[in-house]
Structures are given as C-alpha cells and as structure tokens.
Design goal:
By secondary structure, the chain is mainly alpha-helical. The protein has one domain. 70% of the residues lie in helices and 0% in strands. It is built from five helices and no strands. The longest helix has 15 residues. 5% of the residues are buried. InterPro entries: SpoVIF.
C-alpha cells in the first residue's frame, strides 16, 4: 500500500501507523491464554488509541479471551467496546 494511504488513516484517526505495525508484530506469537499478556495488549491498545479502558471492561475482555477461549479479532473487540 502506498504511504499516502497510511498518512490519511493517521490523519483521520490520530493513531500512528508505526505504532499499529509494531503492535501487530508483537502479537504474532503472543499467548492469549496468558492473563498477563492479554492485560498488556489491552493497555498497549488503549495507549495507542489514547483512550482509557475502565477496569470492568478490561476484566470482561480478559475473561472473554483467557477463560472463555474466544479468539482476539476485531469483531470480538468491537462487540466488547460496543457494550460500554
């Protein structure tokens, strides 16, 4: 993809694409059955997006991923964020 595409995304979202790519690379071999790993990912995404994640939402995400065995995908995250 061309650089302008990413610059447009950055402009619209305020999120640095370099940070997104670094996060994506770090997640490739992450163990999402490990609560500490999941909490770190949640905190990193919140930091990148410049948003606060309430403790109860963090707990819900951790429970969904670690205990219930759901996969981490955009639909799962969107569903959880929609329930705020």
């Amino acid at each position: 993809m061309d650089n302008q595409f990413f610059k447009n995304i950055e402009k619209k979202t305020g999120v640095n694409m370099k940070d997104i790519f670094e996060l994506a690379n770090s997640l490739q071999n992450a163990n999402f059955k490990d609560e500490k790993t999941v909490r770190h990912v949640i905190q990193r995404v919140a930091q990148i997006a410049n948003r606060k994640v309430p403790k109860e939402l963090e707990e819900q995400i951790v429970r969904t991923l670690v205990q219930n065995g759901k996969q981490l995908d955009f639909n799962t995250i969107a569903d959880m964020l929609g329930k705020k």
